[in-house]
Write a structure and sequence with these properties.
Layout (H helix, E strand, L loop, with lengths): L10 E7 L5 H14 L4 E7 L12 E9 L2 E2 L1 H14 L7 E8 L4 H13 L3 E2 L4 E4 L5 H5 L6 H20 L3
Parallel strand pairs: 1-2, 1-3, 3-5, 5-6, 5-7
Antiparallel strand pairs: 3-4
């Protein structure tokens, strides 16, 4: 079906994430809310541990991860390890975005996701959205997180932007 003739065709946005202390989960839920505001987008939120290769049959992706020890979380790495080669050459050209919940920086985790996405030949539709919680002590790092309303609004805006672009065929 020609998208230019039928721009309202429903498309699927797959959100794959891991969250240990709730910060990334809040960010992902906000992005999904924003994306769900677009009536032609079906949003699927899946935990990284539950995501299989067949789930990657989607029109776009948001990957959400905490940064742990200057890297993506182990369970996000496991998701990519399990799905990377079986999905290779099947995802080319699809759009993606990244959400990172970090204690101090987040850029290394964003670089890791970008390298994996490059291998899959995905196209970044936005700069990685990194929320810094400033958690620096073991107690603060392991404590449940509460993401600010301003940061959640940024996540929701990213989801709405991403879904609008998918809906009209820009992405």
């Amino acid at each position: 079906m020609d998208e230019t003739l039928h721009p309202n065709t429903t498309k699927t946005l797959l959100v794959v994430y891991h969250s240990m202390t709730g910060g990334t989960r809040q960010m992902v839920e906000a992005a999904a809310r924003g994306a769900a505001s677009e009536p032609t987008i079906r949003v699927r939120n899946l935990l990284a541990t539950d995501t299989q290769v067949a789930d990657l049959n989607a029109d776009g992706y948001i990957f959400g991860t905490p940064e742990n020890l200057a890297a993506i979380s182990g369970l996000m790495k496991d998701f990519f390890d399990r799905t990377y080669y079986p999905a290779l050459d099947h995802l080319s050209g699809r759009p993606y975005a990244t959400l990172i919940c970090a204690g101090s920086d987040g850029h290394n985790a964003a670089r890791q996701v970008a390298r994996i996405a490059t291998g899959w030949r995905l196209k970044a539709m936005a700069d990685p959205l990194i929320v810094c919680t400033h958690a620096q002590t073991p107690e603060a790092i392991l404590a449940p997180k509460v993401i600010s309303s301003d940061d959640l609004a940024r996540c929701e805006e990213l989801g709405a932007f991403f879904a609008a672009g998918m809906s009209i065929g820009v992405f």
